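dumping this here before i forget
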Amino acid sequence: MRFATAILLVATLAACDRQTSQEKAHEDERAIAMVEKAQRRIPPPVALNPAQISFADVQASGLVGAGCAFTPKSGEGRDPVLYTDDRRALLKLDGRLVQLAADSGSAEMPYATRDHYVGKAFDLRLRQDPGEGEPASEESMRWSGALTIRDSRKREVYSQPGTLECGA
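structure:
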């Protein structure tokens, strides 16, 4: 009798343990499904507002020499929000200078700059309106154009018409 009671007790405990393991496996599956669903969710794009870049910022970054600068139409008469040369572009976002690499396969613009620059979180496209441009100084020319910045998911987060000035 004691032996039968012991076997019944062991069988009951094993059944409870099995049921607990099955419940745990089911809970784990639900948790994994929730995490996978959350990872598939794409957060909304966050609009950028590039800040003006002072000449001191440009010098500190080592981006000096021939290249182009873009000033949005809304910021005319102020410092540019983008500087480019043949190797990189410089933006100021949230008070930090951010560098992007020139896409050497993209279209060449004045002074060997490019129309496409790529970074870890963003890429940007510069557009220069057709034509000879107008003299801005002895060593630079000015065109109307536009700047478009996209996030890592290729969503537009900044787009402004403005002035592109290129020179040495």
